[in-house]
């Protein structure tokens, strides 16, 4: 049976060039970049070149990139490092539709004495900028950081980061964006945007898992979280993951070239066709966040009165890989907190399934998925009515 992989927001297939770059780094350039000898310096040169590739993808200078073990660590560093480096500011502003890496950083900060302000979102999951403006006006001097993601991992909804960043600038407050689901899939010019800190992760754009980083605007001080070494210009201790970084750079080069094409527009049409076909062939479905600007690759479809777990199991048996919101919440019976925050009715939220495409997704795969999905839903619904 063929596998139709529509779970690319969980992770993407590493491109062949990424695997080749990592293989080369592991076999030939495995030395420690901090070593003074020649092979060590060759490894250092590899890390330097990789930083240039990533900076080019992000639209910033190479010195502004700190490599981490991925998006989670990048978010932890940006948030907890920002709070620790500004002891005179005690509040942290974020939204309830953020990834756990941000939400749980907020919870840790709260236990340590910080005050967390959770901004509301509308029915599409877009952050309420008026609420942010009010908070900034009232509390500006207390706020260490505002953190709002660029694109949501569950719904694909795109946040107005430019507006948010400008509001933060007006009030002299630092702004972080978790761009893990954005970078590599959409053009980014972080150096020209009102953004102070930005997180990204290689495995969301055909790079390896365990390699990502943070963009840090010059002048923004962060207290480091990983201590015990002066690597990454003393912002993140620990010997560099040279193979992961090489793979990340290869992925960045490929993504940069791909973003010069109009492939994302073609894939957006494919995603739209997929959604229309599901709506036409299945009763009682809801496309979450359909009323807002979304990433070209994400479709969050709620099947009324079904459990996402049951849908996913049946789809998986038939070769279609998808997921229920955040991959890490799979296995929990509670509906996604993101959909709850958006006010999605429980009868829909329980049955919400995320389908996410990648630049490798083909028309044929979507056609096949469209054969399988309506049959699977019909089967589940008929077994329900038989009970
Ligand atoms: N932020 C968002 C929006 C994500 O989707 C993810 C991964 O699913 C992360 C952060 C965590 O990234 P990583 O898997 O690289 O730790």
Describe the structure.
There is one protein chain. The chain is α/β, with parallel strands linked by helices and 387 residues long. It folds into 2 domains: 4-12 and 261-386, Aspartate Aminotransferase, domain 1; 16-258, Aspartate Aminotransferase, domain 2. The chain contains 13 helices and 12 strands. The protein has helices spanning 16-27, 38-58, 71-85, 100-111, 129-139, 161-170, 231-234, 242-259, 263-281, 308-317, 337-341, 346-349, 363-386, and strands at 4-5, 65-68, 91-95, 115-119, 143-147, 175-178, 197-201, 212-216, 285-287, 298-303, 320-321, 352-356. It is globular. The two termini are 30 Å apart. The model has no long low-confidence stretch (mean pLDDT 96). Pyridoxal-5'-phosphate (PLP) binds at residues 70-72, 75, 99, 101, 149, 153, 178, 180-181, 201, 212. The site of pyridoxal-5'-phosphate has 13 residues, from helix 3.
